[in-house]
Design a protein that fits this description.
196 residues; globular
Length: 196
């Protein structure tokens, strides 16, 4: 039991060293293309990693149908990315991504329960902004579809990691959701301040 706590703490403390997934300063050059690049990409950005795992933990700890919000996020991430690749834009994409981390972190920390449709709509709305950011950076290239498929696969995988972690926390140390959710909320706050 002690080992699990230390591993979780080590993982949490090592996350700030991971680069943000879409910096907005390199014109998408950090996006390599192809299936493998798409699979790897969500693991290389702290904003993605945090959002996906938070959705899973929150769902596992508060929802009866734990799969609905994660599926909504992945599906609307795809919709947003395709729209972004086609040139669609919305104002304040980066601030909304930061706000998503703040909100998801708080929901996780406080283990807020809400109706399934409301939870799915909320995470889905945030997912559209995450998708738009990546779709705009990917553009329409020959490998963009494979890259996007890899990103959606990894998104679902990270949601599953969050679901498993949330179930484990419920059985052992539910207070860890406060620590992890609080960390995600702080990350969102710092990104929100930085985007203004």
């Amino acid at each position: 039991m002690n080992i699990r706590k230390h591993l979780l703490l080590a993982l949490t403390l090592s996350l700030p060293g991971i680069a943000l997934a879409h910096t907005g300063t390199d014109g998408g050059a950090h996006h390599l293309t192809g299936l493998v690049a798409g699979v790897v990409h969500p693991f290389t950005g702290l904003d993605h990693l945090s959002a996906m795992i938070a959705v899973g933990i929150w769902s596992a700890m508060t929802a009866r149908r734990i799969w609905v919000a994660p599926i909504s996020f992945a599906g609307l991430l795809l919709v947003g990315a395709v729209a972004g690749m086609a040139g669609a834009t919305l104002p304040a994409v980066e601030p909304m991504i930061a706000a998503s981390l703040l909100v998801l972190g708080l929901l996780t920390a406080m283990r807020v329960k809400m109706p399934t449709a409301m939870a799915a709509s909320l995470v889905g709305m945030f997912a559209v902004f995450h998708g738009l950011a990546h779709g705009a950076e990917l553009g329409i290239t020959g490998q963009a579809t494979a890259t996007l498929a890899g990103m959606v696969f990894s998104t679902l995988l990270l949601h599953c990691v969050g679901l498993v972690a949330g179930r484990m926390l419920m059985r052992t140390h539910a207070w860890w959701s406060c620590v992890l959710g609080g960390g995600v909320a702080l990350l969102g706050t710092s990104l929100l301040v930085g985007s203004m």
